[in-house]
Automatic annotation (TrEMBL):
It holds the Pfam family TetR_N. This is TetR/AcrR family transcriptional regulator. It comes from Kribbella deserti. InterPro entries: BetI_C (IPR039538), DNA-bd_HTH_TetR-type_CS (IPR023772), Homeodomain-like_sf (IPR009057), HTH-type_TetR-like_transc_reg (IPR050109), HTH_TetR (IPR001647), Tet_transcr_reg_TetR-rel_C_sf (IPR036271). Residues 31-50 bind DNA. Keywords: DNA-binding, Repressor, Transcription, Transcription regulation.
Length: 191
């Protein structure tokens, strides 16, 4: 009797395999062949799910956003706008092994968006979604001020910078320092 395979579970396993290859060897080395080997599949089996390397990489990039979105859905939010904004922003920082892996993969993809138009479009979409979320949360905190968009730009840049430093210099930017930098910025906004 043929084995029934849960296609979505298999695709998630493949995302994990792609991420392991990217984290270990870099995005340029995340070939279909290497990912198939990492996942313990034949090339033919992998091509059943993804016919090209671009499809595989796009799916893997989307998975970063989907995981963050799912975590955000599961959070218990405080009643105050400041607490909500801080909680959401902290989910974007590499403060534990899962978020560290996500940020590491995100950084690798961000660099690839400079030369890969398909990934660039997806990266732009993800960037806009995060920016819009931060702007909306800032609006809840500060109201509709003329400088709202500029404040959203600054907060987004701070989060991106903390995330990048967190994965590129984890010995220097420990999670408690990243949290403190974010809190100081939010304190200054509400002072």
């Amino acid at each position: 009797m043929p084995r029934v395979v849960d296609a979505e579970a298999r695709r998630q396993d493949l995302v994990e395999a792609v991420w392991r290859v990217i984290r270990r060897e870099g995005l340029p080395h995340a070939s279909v062949r290497k990912v198939a080997t990492e996942a313990g599949l034949s090339m033919g089996s992998l091509r059943h799910y993804f016919t090209t390397q671009d499809e595989l990489l796009q799916f893997s990039l989307r998975a970063v956003g989907e995981r963050v979105t799912e975590r955000l859905r599961q959070l218990e939010y405080p009643a105050d706008a400041r607490g909500v904004l801080e909680l959401v922003a902290l989910e974007l920082l590499p403060l534990d092994p899962d978020r560290f892996a996500e940020v590491e993969v995100w950084v690798a993809f961000t660099a690839a968006t400079l030369t890969n138009p398909a990934l660039r479009a997806l990266g732009d979409e993800s960037y806009a979604a995060v920016h819009d979320l931060l702007r909306d949360l800032l609006r809840d905190l500060l109201g509709d001020r003329p400088e709202l968009e500029a404040q959203a730009d600054r907060l987004h840049a701070l989060i991106d910078g903390l995330a990048l430093h967190g994965v590129s210099s984890p010995g220097r930017l420990k999670p408690d320092k990243a949290r403190a930098a974010l809190r100081e910025h939010l304190d200054a906004l509400t002072a």
